[in-house]
Each structure stands twice: as C-alpha cells, then as structure tokens.
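Record pair follows.
FIRST:
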Amino acid sequence: MARVDLSDYGYVNARVRGMRSHLLTKEFFIKLVEADSFETLNSLLDQTIYRREVNEAVLLDAERPDYDKALSLNMVAAFRKIHDATGGQAHQLATILLSRYDLLNVKTILRGKQGNATPSEISRLLIPVGGLRMDSLEAMAQQREIRDVINYMNTQQMRYAAPLVAAYPAYLKKDQDLSILELALDKFHYGTIMELLKSKRYRDVNVEMVREMQSGEIDMRNISTLVRIRGIKLDDEEVENLRIPGGMLTEEQFLSLLRLGDIVRLVGEYPDPRYRKLLEKALAEYQEEDVVAFDRELEHELVRRGTAMSNVNVLGIGVIIGYIWAKQNEIVNLRIVFKGKLMDQPQVDIKKDLFFAGRQSAEAA
C-alpha cells in the first residue's frame, strides 16, 4: 500500500475541497429561516453534513435539543480531520491557525466563571481542536472561580497560565475587570505566534499568508480597543499597554488615534484606507447599535479575508485558511438561526443577522 506524503499540500487540499463542497449556501440558509417548525428545520438539516450531530441531539432531548453542542461537535470533527491530514510545514501552520481556538476556549471558560455559568453550559461552547484537549478544558470548567481556573492551569503547566498569573493582581485591583485577563491572553497568544513566524525556517508564501491573517486579527482587536476606550483619560504608558503588538498600527499611531477622542475623527483619520472604509460603514450604524456595530464589521472583515485566501493560494495553505473561516462563519450563522427560532424572532430579523462571504453564497449544500 502506497504511503501518502502528508507534508504535501496536494493531499490535504484535495480533502478540504471535498469538505468545502458540503458548506451550506445562502439559499439553503433562507430555507432554514423560513422553516415553519423545528421538525421542518431538522428535516432540512438531515440533508446536510450536520445530520448525525443534530439527530443525536434530538434523540437525547426531543423537546429542547442541544444544538450548540451539536454544532461544536461537527466543527471539531471537521477541523481535526484537516489537522490529521497534514504533515511537515502544512501541519505546523495548521496547528498555528487552530491555536486561536485554544485562546477562545480559555476566554470562554473565564467568561463563564465571571457570569456564573454551569460547567455544562461552558463545556458545550468549547471547540477543542488546538493544543488544549477536551478533558483539560472540562477540568478547567469544573473549577469554582476564575482564581481556581488559573491555579489549575498553573499546576498543570498549561501554556496560557503564565500571562494569567501575571495579570491576576491587576484584575483584582481593577474591580475584577475581565478585559485585563483577556488582554494578557491576547498579547501572549499573538506575541508567541508572531515570534515563531519570524524564525528563519518560516519564509515562504504559505507562512506569509498565515502571518497576514494573524496580523489582521491583531489589527481588529486594536481597533476594537480604540473604539471602546475613546474619551477615557489615560497616560501614555497605560495606552501603550492596551495595544497588542504585531499589527499595522504603530505605538505612535495608536496613541495619536486615541487622543482624538471623538469617534468620527478616529474613523476619518484612521491611517489604513482598507479599515477606514469598513469603519465608516460601522459608524453609519453606530448611533443605533453602539460599539456592537464596529465589532460586527471587524469580524465580518476577518471572514472576508479568510475565505478569500482560498483563491489567493490554491496550491498551498490558502485552501485550508479559506475553509476554516468559511466553516466558522457557517457555524455562527447556524447559531443565529437556532437562537432566532427558539426566541420566535421575525424571519426578517434573523436574515438580517446572517452574514455570507465568498464562495459560501454560491456553492451547493
């Protein structure tokens, strides 16, 4: 039996293209939104790649199926399938791409503890596809308080423990402001990745594409921070501490934008025209939705960039990047549909909240 060279992008990309053919189209989502009952909704999903997980959820609790858990299970299976099909550089870069879920999972647990969520409520939102496996994440979710979560992580020598231990005193000093811990996690996560990608063994078009996506995520977080803290009087050192290094904004630009204070001026004088355009769109909706409008536009821009990578590098990591972002966006859209249906939201409102990018609006379900 011939051995497959997993270090070659050709093998994994062929598998990913097959998986991409199962992504749901915009037209299919409209059918889901317009379904007249959950029975009809489940029947439609029975025709998709979500069939097994949704059916299991319905069998376990027909009255109130755990759709969140079903979606998470499907997403984990898809991403692990990709990761397991890679070797060499492809495996290393896929590991970096999926490590964002380690960051999100730790944040989910901390937010859950801050909001007094139960361990089961937290666990069904976790996506264990990075270095942190489900048994470790569930053990973290079982801890009583945020302090206990951090102590457990430190005892187990988990990679995200150190920044949390260092930031915990400031978290207590700032009236348990969770953003202190989340910023520490962001700085550690992106700092570690950007340093790794700078190393001499990482120099080709595939690495540059991964670096571009990481830099984009950093930019989005820095812009979100600027929008949220505008008008607050902070000294220069405090301001710089809020910036995540590695993005396009320099220390001087970040400080200069914050000093503007006014949101309209911040948008109008943002140095990168690509971001300025999407910020102007968010500003048009700002009066009605506040900072949520900016967060949504920033996230949508990341989805656009990520899914577009499939067309930029069809023989390398671009195919994997494109699928990961398309799949993630599909899961977000499905959660919107399920939540909207459960809350009896008008169909027009559910449709308004959905977002589609790239090939996802054109491929068949």
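SECOND:
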Amino acid sequence: MSSRGRARTGKVFWKLSISKARDDIFLHVKIPADIETAKQSKTDCIYKKGLTVQLYINVGSNLNNVHSFYMIIDNKNYQLNTLLDALIFCFQAYFALDIKYAPECQHL
C-alpha cells in the first residue's frame, strides 16, 4: 500500500476508503435466503478487479440484533457465535493459511 492511501493491482490504482475496507472484510446479507447470491456477486466483483477472493465475514440480518456470523473460506461457511469470534478466526486463518491481505485491508 502506498503512503497516499492508494492500492494497486497490476497497473490499476484506486483510492482506498474506510467503507471499501469494511466491505472487503464484511458482507451484510439481510435475508438468509440471499446468502449464496450475495457471495456469488462479491466473488464476481473481485474477479473483475483481477484479484482473488480472500476470507470475509458474512453478517446476517438486522445490524441492530445480529445473531449469525459466518466466516467464508473457499466458499465454505463456518458459523461463529459473536463478531469477536469471527474476527479472531479471520485473522488466525490469514496467518495459518499464509494468505496475503486484500489491497483494501493491507493497513490492518
């Protein structure tokens, strides 16, 4: 990541934002039946940028009363009880699997 807050993939640069970093780690799906559709559109968007799909956390239903968290790795869902458990699992998976952070999240 450059000091100017920009990320690069190949020859393409883009300006990073807090919302972009948040959207790269979290996927908010309001209706449980839409999880697979949301995962597919996230995957398609990432491939259009020329990147690979990284780990991310699926946050279900209403943000005021969230009761489901899923860690997505290789299109497999791992259900966790709390957001903290999901974040810990996410960072442990990055280290255990030796995965590079997505450009939007390299500052983390």
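COMMENT: The mean pLDDT is 76.
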